[in-house]
Amino acid sequence: xxxxxxxxxxxxxxxxxxxxxxxxxxxxxxxxxxxxxxxxxxxxxxxxxxxxxxxxxxxxxxxxxxxxxxxxxxxxxxxxxxxxxxxxxxxxxxxxxxxxxxxxxxxxxxxxxxxxxxxxxxxxxxxxxxxxxxxxxxxxxxxxxxxxxxxxxxxxxxxx
Length: 160
What we know:
- The protein is an alpha+beta fold.
- The chain has helices at residues 5-16, 22-29, 33-45, 78-89, 115-124, and strands at 65-73, 94-99, 106-112, 132-139.
- Helix 1 crosses helix 2 (22-29) and helix 2 packs across helix 3.
- The radius of gyration is 20 Å and the shape is elongated.
- The chain starts with a helix and ends in a 21-residue tail after the last strand.
- InterPro entries: ArsR-like_HTH, AsnC-type_HTH_dom, Dimeric_a/b-barrel, Tscrpt_reg_AsnC-like, Tscrpt_reg_AsnC/Lrp_C, Tscrpt_reg_HTH_AsnC-type_CS, WH-like_DNA-bd_sf, WH_DNA-bd_sf.
């Protein structure tokens, strides 16, 4: 889907506040409500807008420890890859998983209440994942920047 300036403005507004009513959104982007709603629905159907969620404060809900876990696997065939990915997809503690090039094959972002909870997760789950031969844990001391909104400066109509 080719995005234009209006799409960029809609996406920027919804990233800032996903609870905007269609009337509020249409006023903000300078479009009447019906065409605005049609564009939003098209962005949703195309998969560009993947959903709407509440962003929670991790510490506020008792999840005070973020760990970045580098994982090296022993096998790189389709069956092993599928088994590993499937197992990771089922772990609620893993909020992100990336396939990497470099020292590790995968990088997991794990969110748990505290260090004892991570140790239990490491011993009881991560070390038992299919194909894992090495795990390196890096603990987040503080969050310098955590942004969920994507920059859309490369799209048509962006300033600068």
